[in-house]
Amino acid sequence: MLFYRFPVIWAIFLLFAMFYSTASYASSNDCYNIQQFEAEQGLRIHSELLVISLTCQKTSGYTELYPKYQRFTTKNKLLLADYENRLINFFKGQGSTAPAKELHTLRTKLANDISKHAINMSVASFCIYFGKRVDRALNMDKETLRRWARQIWKEQKTSYDVCSKDKAILEKEVKERKERRQLLIQQQRKKKRQSYR
Predict the structure, then answer these.
(1) Backbone angles phi, psi at 32, to 5 degrees
(2) What is the 3-state secondary structure (H, E, C) of 166-184?
(3) pLDDT at position 29, please?
(4) Residue 13: how many CB atoms within 10 A of its CB?
(5) What is the model's pTM?
């Protein structure tokens, strides 16, 4: 019977509760979860490969990059479409009235980021430095590509920060991968030393 005895206090409590829950929801939407982070990074990789292949297609030794980029796109079309859908849904959750336009703007920005390197370097230097990425990406299976997209690069920021809980999970994944790689290297060195005996 609290409602009948203190209606004003109860109404204030309900308003506060509604405001708090809305604010909590909004704040959780102001950062990327792992799936959204992976999506933007995956589209960044795709945009970078496009710029690399177009920039280098007339440079000797790199003329096959654009067809390779096209094969990469075809090979991973379902994953890339999924990445786009994840971000469109994120933008909708942010209240966007034109989420597809926001996605287009993001993809343009991602392409411009790598284009800055092309502007600041000679074409030959750019192709030597970045050209191998196209082959590397084309040879990746889906899970390897996804791991690449889930990598956190300090110098490469996404449009939204990763939510703290999700960032901790990603950092743990990176640490575990490094430890496995170091263990593998140690095992290979040990095997090599034993073969010399």
Answers:
(1) -85, 140
(2) HHHHHHHHHHHHHHHHHHH
(3) 64
(4) 13
(5) 0.75
